[in-house]
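DM between two lab members

TW: hey, do you still have the WD40-like Beta Propeller Repeat entry open?
JB: yeah, one sec
JB: this one, 368 aa:
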Amino acid sequence: MKNFTQLPFMGFPLLSKKLLAAACLLTVTHAGAAEFITEVTQLSDKEIRVGEAYYRADMQWMVYQAEVTGDNPFYQIFLKNLSNGKVQQVSPGIGKTTCSWVHPSQEKVLFSSTHEDPDAKAKMIAEIERRKSGERKPYAWDYDEFYEIYEADFTGGKIKNLTNTLGYDAEASWSPDGKLIAFASNRRAYTETLSEEEAALFKKDPSSMIDIYIMNADGTNVKRLTHTNSYDGGPFFSPDGKRIVWRRFSDNGREAEIFTMNIDGSDQKQITRLNMMSWAPFYHPSNKYIIFSTNVHGHRNFELYIVDVDGEKEPVRVTDMDGFDGLPVFTPDGKYITWTSDRTPEKKGHLFHGKWNHKKALERLAVK
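TW: and the structure you got?
JB:
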């Protein structure tokens, strides 16, 4: 594999030498990212495709989504014990899943799934047959109205539907104290009477009615935080739990910018103004800056950037490699970064991990 060499995995000291050898972790050398990210390793390679990894506060567990077998062509949710390398599936295995999160202190996982869709298995079979036929279609996210947000224990048991509302309910995360959940939903298109203009817009684009919501961790006291006819999604809490970062699409759906707001929906502030597709924002644990992905260098070339939390500085480029680099997250101690990239020979999405230079980030952003 060109430009890849063996290197001990520095991100999790609890991993044994035996596990390191079994994982066949790979390192990437690239001058463009070396200023911020070093000791880069590829965390996944046996799965068909992988994306969106998130850590528990104690850094003992990582939850992520992956397609692993031909029986189900859609993502399922997996939990990895970072001390012994054991991986276990926590989603039911039927239908589609997305957007997982691990509780900051309890043995609980949050994810969205369509397994209660009566046609879930039929849709799985149809997708398998479509792929066998060789049919190709452009990538497009599926805003399936059967997506619900579920809570489950680490074995996938005690599963509980927290939303129980027709419409796309997904992109959920717990607050740092585990008491609140922020999520995205277009439920109002199914539960409210839309204007003629809104109904026509929703028929054309189901994402147009997606807004950010917040609720108690048990699914009660749901409150809508954004009120637009464009896609507001991907919410994450700030490290202190006081604000939410998310991305807002333009009316035409071709651009997106990063925004933040208080958890009650007040003080909505635009952070980026790149006029491109900027999305997948995530706070650094220091609460000094936000990392995100943008295609400012080309329609299909997504790179990681950082920006100060107030959006007062020019965003700073982090990665520099053709293809997709996105969905970045920092480890809870802020010393490492994990993200999804297709920088593999097969050009399939996999997880990459590296040591993060927080001091350099502050220096380049001129933030104290």
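TW: got it. Residues 43 and 81 are 13 Å apart (CA to CA). The radius of gyration is 20 Å.
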